[in-house]
Design goal:
8 helices, globular, Arc Repressor Mutant, subunit A, DNA-binding, mainly alpha, two-stranded antiparallel ribbon, homodimer
DNA sequence: CCACTTACTTCCATTTTGCAAGTGACTAGA
DNA sequence: TCTAGTCACTTGCAAAATGGAAGTAAGTGG
């Protein structure tokens, strides 16, 4: 990361459309799954890696870096020796909750067999 | 559409997570922009092509096919000679509106200079 | 006939993905 | 001390996806 990269949180946008701009941050098959897991109290690399969709580790590392760079996620050391890191959503990241919720509602209506919100919470505590 | 195509709207999912399943349909940088345009009354290939993000034509054709295949979009001929086609959202596709709205709210809050909903509607009528 | 339009398709170099294997730092046990 | 194991990644590489440009098919209008 050079100095030039840092002054703007983001690179130049394709347009000023809010949908387009958000898609530049989360527009792919994996990023929102990471956000989902962070919302549902998974915080270490290991925990994020072990989700049922089986995200490849290089993709996970990349997405965490991007999310951190775009200010949605904060990486913090939770242990000194050996050094271990945990990832947490910033407020900006947590604000994606309504997006996530509307997506869940859509899928529950249109894709049979998808887990309801309660199912997800129950699964998490098993 | 044959009977065979219909029973499988989709291939096998990565998981039964509603977020993951929806991402298999719209999880990329372009698909939701097409849905956005269809929501905002753009219906021909030409119109969709001319959005400010400048989607490549091969990607647009591919995304329209996928959206049609997953039942979010319907392709219909609106003119006989020469044959011309228009794309419209099905009810399933229109139901993505709340997702779109929550995304717009997020961007308006967190990304400066993004258009508000009114701005978008005004631009459309110019 | 020629230019022009719409709705795509094809070609191909570059980029991104996805899988497997490897690395570095450390701990705990024989 | 040697060995195995854990966590948090990184690296290598083949395969797939993307993006830009050019081409094509089917028409219209002059």
């Amino acid at each position: 990361m050079s100095n030039n990269d840092e002054n703007k949180g983001e690179a130049c946008h394709r347009s000023r459309c809010p949908v387009s701009c958000l898609l530049e941050l989360i527009g792919d098959k994996w990023t929102l799954l990471v956000v989902r897991d962070l919302l549902f109290d998974k915080h270490t690399f290991k925990e994020l890696q072990s989700s049922p969709e089986k995200i490849p580790t290089n993709i996970l590392a990349d997405r965490l870096k991007r999310l951190e760079h775009s200010g949605l996620v904060r990486r913090e050391q939770y242990q000194e020796r050996p050094k271990r890191y945990a990832y947490h959503l910033t407020e900006k990241g947590q604000d994606l909750n309504p997006v996530m919720e509307s997506m869940i509602l859509w899928s529950n209506k249109h894709i049979p067999e998808t887990y309801k919100l309660e199912d997800i919470l129950n699964l998490g505590s098993e």
